[in-house]
Fold these 2 entries.
Entry 1:
Amino acid sequence: MKVIYLDHISGNPLHPQVKEAIIDYIHKDGFGNPVSQHSIGDIAMETLEDARAKVAQLINSNPQEIVFTSCGTESNNHAIKGVAFAKAKKGKHIITSNIEHQSISRPLRMLSQMGFNVTSVSVDKYGIVNPSDIEKAIREDTILISIMHANNEIGTIEPIAEIGRIAKAKKVTFHTDAVVSCGNVPVDVDEMGVDLMSIAANQFYGPPGIGALYIRHKTEILPFIDGGVQENNRRAGTPNMLGIVGMGKASELARVEMPQRTEHLLKLKKTVMDRLGTIDETVVNGHPEKSLPGLVSFSVKFIEGESMMMMLDQEGISISTRSACASGSLRTSHVLIATGTDHATAQGTLVFSYGIDITVEDIDKAFEALRKSVAFLRNMSPLYKKG
Amino acid sequence: MQYSEAVMDHFTRPRNVGTIENPDGTGEVGNPICGDMMTITIKVKDDRIEDIKFNTFGCGAAIAVSSMVTEMAKGKTLEEAMKITKESVAENLGGLPKNKLHCSNLGADALHKAIMDYYTRKGGKGSETKEAEKVDHIGEREGKCYCPYCDIGLLEPAPYCTHCGKPTLQHH
């Protein structure tokens, strides 16, 4: 049975050209350490800097402002803890939102236990942060604002540029978690006015296990992983060269192919929305326009998400009930609760996330299976009124 | 996939789905806020469960548990059916993942509630002793309901914590 993979938000398949680039590098004797001062080291260093330039080009930054990390989570930890510890003497107040990924909210919880103060602003029913709420929350001792660019569960895109202008005027360091947006929608660090930005390669057809943190020149931040001189003293440890080669290639492809990819994804999104309209008592989560093109979150009333996911899995359709990072958790999604979705409806949530490898026919097949499982489970549900 | 073959079998081909018209006993447990809700209806003849059906809102484990409980109880005397426990349900399903064990609790509870309902309706033997079982919200304080394990406030009294899934009820 051919599996239709509709869980791209948990990790994209490798782009064939990314695969090729990684294999080419292996054949080029790319085992050297880029900081070594000999010819084998030079091969690695050249490749490393080439990849760095490609990532920089994708987000319109200077290559020197890119630090490679092991994943989006490390980038987020680095940004939050690195700034908090570097600026602790100036102040201990941090502003965030209540729909952030766990790799932001958990480090912040740890910091608040260590004496930092965290203000978490609420979102509207679409999951959008109001920039004036951020402005009102800024105090004398505010050292950092961290608001995600796009939400990983509902796809809503936040008004980062507006928040960036506020942060700049108030001279507060501004970080955005762009892990699920970067490489999928246009991202420009200057237009967005961010000082720090987290990205991950497996969100745009690069390999897992490699990410980056954009650090604007002169931003006060400490290293998260201490040790050697790699990454200009900002991230110690031998760089993951295979991952970096893949991320560089994936960045280049994302930049060049973005218009065609977006067109394709929007066509798929329209198909998903049309088909969803034919199933009664469903609710679409997130903002109708300001959202990622490759993701639709929706709730099917009277039934529960995991049982739908399991039924679809039996039919060869891979989907998710929420983000992979929280899939083992029985907690109702904090994002859906933040947007005011009631608990019972939130329980019936599915996330369809698709990519350039998915066709309209795939979506149709997925909906055929979904319709079947919804009917099956509703027939069993004490909440669904039959007839 | 984290589930055993038996769970997958009962989940994909659930037995005894539905509601019995004019049942002799009904047991309803859980609520959609917890993520699981189960209704069991029974038909009793000569102190034996002649027919049993369920309706469930919940995860794969909850559905498999419902199906298994009804299969285990069907044809048994009421006394035998009262002895079905969450452990025996989970065991018959070849085990459940740790974070889903509370689902098997729910199945046995719904069955026992349906049997108690039968006794109450009959008003005869058994009803007094069964009624005597006291159920408390161990997480209740100042009129509000808290999960005793993760200490998170619950929106309304629920038998299972909406956050950690652990039972908030204590059977005496």
Entry 2:
Amino acid sequence: MTDPLAAWRGNPFFVLGVSTQASRAEVERAGQKLLGLLALGSASARHYDTPFGPATRDADSVRQALATLRDPNERVVHELLANIAPGAAGKHTDHPGAAWKGAEHALGWSGRWAE
Amino acid sequence: MKPRPLYVGIDLGTSNSTAAVFDGEELTVVRNGQGSVLTPSVVRIDGRGNVLVGARARRFLETDPANTRGEFKRLMGTTHTLEFPASGAIRRPEELAADVLKSLRQDVADQLGVAPQRAVVSVPALFELHQTAATSDAARCAGFERVELIQEPVASAIAAGWTRESGNGPWLVYDLGGGTFDVSLLETQEGLLRVVGHDGDNFLGGRDFDRALVDVVIAKLAADGVVIDRADPRHAVALRRLRLAAEEAKIELTRAAEAPIFLAGLDLLGQSVDVDVIVTRSEYESLIAPIVDRSLDICARLLAANGLGKDALERVVLVGGPTVTPFLRERIRAVLGLGFGEGLDPMTLVAQGAALFAGTVALDGRPSGPATRQVGDAAGPKVWLQFPAMTSDLSPFVVGKPLDRSGSVKKVKIDRADGEWHSDPTPCEADGTFAIMVRLLPRQNTSFNVSGELADGRTVALDPPQFSITHGTTLGEPPLSRSVGVALADNRVQIYFNRGSPLPIRRTFVLRTVETVNPDSAGHALKVPIVQGEFTLAHLCRLVGTLEIPASALTAALPAGADVEVMLELDRGGQLRARARIASIDQVFDQVALLVTPQVPLAAMDDALAKLRVRAADLSRSAFHGRSGKAAARLSAALPRLEDAQRNIAAARGGDLDAGEQARRELSDFDALLAEVEADQAWPELGQEIEESFAIAVSWVAGHGSEAEKSTLNNAYRACKSAFVGKDADEVQRQLGVIRRLGSAAYLRHPGAWDREFEYCAARVAESTDIRRATELVANGQEAIRKQDSAKLEQIVRALWQLNPVDRDDQKLGHGSGLRSR
């Protein structure tokens, strides 16, 4: 098998860079923004950080992540997986808009946009 | 000022078609040359080759039915062709659909001054791939350079959501068209629409009302000694006149208590007959009650499948002409206990939703020629903006990138045109991009101005200087309505795309050839059948295309067990692309040989019908003996469908192509139902199988397995048992797979296991798919045993496994697939 951590890094919450507590609308918004940036060829949008190290995303993986989180049953599973990820637990409490420390920065979010 | 965008949506219907346009603010249904919003999906080609479309063609349906064709939508994607004897023209169904689309495109051009280049066209939710692909083809044929498809119920839901603020909760779109019935369960949350599930019947519609009515008239005439035989092609013209008269009577019966069906001088084999029959409303209602109930059963099935009771629904939206029938509305209200969305036009809702969807995906229909700029309009630096034209999010992101290389634009600022909201000046990132969250006004179109701050601090307008976003109910992405996969030689399916996956989508799996394919075996081909459906057995799924690798195209022999990398790709236009890469000989094949449904010969359908009858009878008998009341009830409830199929086969003999398609579908649905009942009947045996598999696995794992494997085995057994109790067949099979894999992994650690496996394979060389190679491998294996080279022996046994024979019957059922899973 290939990298055993790849599946963890591919968690839709990590791909979209949102907290497991994000609302439906927040998830959609994050996806919409990423798809826009990727369409513009933004290099920074291609990379994201996870508790398991950096990873890359493309329009396909973003759309797939959105589709996964739209299904409430699948979302629950990935919430669990994202929350038991070592290093991820507890950290999302310091900012409601981010899955772990550094996520906002990695995504180009800044305080004034996040409510 | 930039012209407003032009989002075009088209509802290509079985009986009528409609176009609607949305400019980001206003939603308008387009009127045709006759001033009507409905264009009949009818095409006429006269003796001089002139093509007439719509209402003008429809007038000839009665007087000149041979050269006037309607209801070709359901034939799209099949090999049927339609003939126009007067001109000798022969047309495929998609060419006729293209004529209708061309006419609608012209109507849009007449009304708005621009012939749209791009549009969204709606398709029934249960349309299969070959049908959706044919729809895209038709649109391209009509002059649209790009087309996206949306499922009709989803379109209706978007349109219904657009006109009214809706709460959070599930709702149902009941769409009964002329020829198809779709029911969709949707849920809106924070303005975002999600398709929870859908169901339906590709062959249930208003036409069945007409047909029932025609049957009654035929029966009444028969009582008077006038015989009209559906199976007789010479009666086809008379039948068509009768059907048109029945359609008018049907419309009259929605208001009046009775309607006459009067036809003077009906020509029956040279004999002129006057038809004068009265049908009363109550008579009509008892005729259509079974059809309406069939649709309501499908609604109940959909709700049950999603764990919802009938009272959980928040609203029901009715779509399609037949839903104006008062009796149908009463029945729905009685069963589902709900009122309907008021003020929604069931006839044009789909087109409106399609136009709104074009806005969500920013599919502007205006030709994208050189931008026309007014003289004196000083254009600022160009900026590339990305934003949703329509969204359910009140604070969406606008992302963009200045296009001038000099990098003179340092910051970007967006201001709402009403002056009530302004963004901060936002700096461009290192890669030139910026992202700004804007504030929309709820449920309307909001305009924004874009300006840039240059390095020297000056503020300039950017190009484009303005854009607008509409807030409303939207759909994330159109989901795939039926799973797609590749049929395997053991009659199983390798699923590629699950139902509900977002489109476009692409996936690749590595499969293995079953047999050796030699370049010199002319006429031979490796088949990769692509199927669509929710069944685990390939023959129950619908074949939608085949990727054929002709032996003659191979540069070298392809041995049995060779890896073939098969990629499937599906876009939003319903276009399927397949590619097979064979790494060992470095060749790529991407010719999908067939994306149409072959015409099934009528004799073959007779044959299939007879076989199904026998199977159904056997099953009911065993259900009766086994005291399985539920199975028996299901079977007897379904039996009338066989009668329908028989009637349709007869009608197909009489020249009714559509009835032939319907019969084919009824037979395959019945086949699937029998398979389900059979699996139900075999349920106790499955329980036995679980125990046996577990007993074998446990005996090996106990001696040769790790602690982790032992506990996994126990867990799998428990999961398997509880799935068995819960009657979840798929889960039982999945867990059985785990149990067997654990068992065989432990068994193969036994010191004598590979020797024993080798002996087993060696004894069956004659049955293998490549005898020459198997013989060679066996010789090598004997050598390895002599040298006690167990690693080598294992390798040889694994190679021999790949040459295991396939069951020819399974392979035939699996659409002749030449592949198996790894």
